[in-house]
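Fold Annotation — chain and its backbone

Encoding — discrete vocabulary of local shapes
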Amino acid sequence: MAGGIYLIQDDDRLLEMMEQPYDSEDQLQDLLVTYPNLIAGDQIDRATARKWLLISREVSVPSDEETAVQWSLDHLFIDQNAVPTLVDVRRTPNAALRQQVLGQSIDYAANAVVYWPIDSIIAFFEANCRDRGRDPEQIFEEFLGADANEDRFWQKVKTNLQAGKIRLVFVAEEISAEMRRVVEFLNEQMDPVEVFALEIKQYVSEDGLRTLVPRIIGQTAEAQQKKSSATRERRRWDESSFFAELKARRGAEEAQMAKEIYVWVKNQAPEMDIQWGTGDTYGGFAAHLHLKAKKPYQLFTVNIAGKMEISAHNYGSQRPFNREEKWLELRNKFSSIGLSLPTEPGEVRSPSLALFTLQDESDLNQVIEIFDWVVAEIKRA
């Protein structure tokens, strides 16, 4: 058995704790679910320690949009900055397994970025909460605070996925020198993806006291400087930059449609405001309704891809549309403009409406009239 560490007891007795392997891979996986802080967020980011929201264990990652072929990821966490963190656990990776783990995890990341809809991530999170007998809203508030905007957070998760801003973490009880070199190389070369190895050693005393010692590997000074510079340079959208970019990408007509929707929101101030997104490639604005004694209500987002998008879960989980008769009325209204809501309120889905379908002025006016009705219904609730 390998050498240990020593604890000084209250009676000045020196307690020796010897390194001990885990009984199984499952034991190490269970520890990460029970104690997410083992992912050493203070070592990943020494300025602002990463906190972890567990989305699920054994998460399915689709390989494309058409087939049912999927891989299973050990754990999916998201940090407080909405960065998806994909965790793969191997108790003792040998040389052959090291190549398999690295290749498989990069496959996870590549396919998650392309084929992983945000609706399915939210569904994983809510199912995991139910399995643990916890309320998803309560867990979310414990994670980010009571004033946090849940819809804005999930939208940021989506934006990070689309921009490839994710984190890969390989976990083992011992990380070899060869594995360390590979991880450090990947972390320096893959931008904006972060790649780390996490070594979690277990030490046990004769009377059964146990200590776990996590250590992050891969955070070289060069990689840290490169990633922090990239973060500082991420575009923060505003009115001028968004509409100029939208016009360049989608044409003057679609930019004008988005502008009219934007003006409608601004005209509802101070009850309604605009929240701008960030991202080098993806971004847009969200319309938020603010009423006294109520959480901010996100009505829709308009993104740089030329789409208006709504959150079915957001509408179906709050008054008045969490009531069956109001949900049916909302479905009929949205259906008339091409936004297809699910049958049941609260189901996770994000239907979208392409702006180019609103070229007729009457179509755009109908959209605005329906959101006028939505705002009036929320105020009456």
Remarks:
- Residues 95-115 form the longest helix (21 residues).
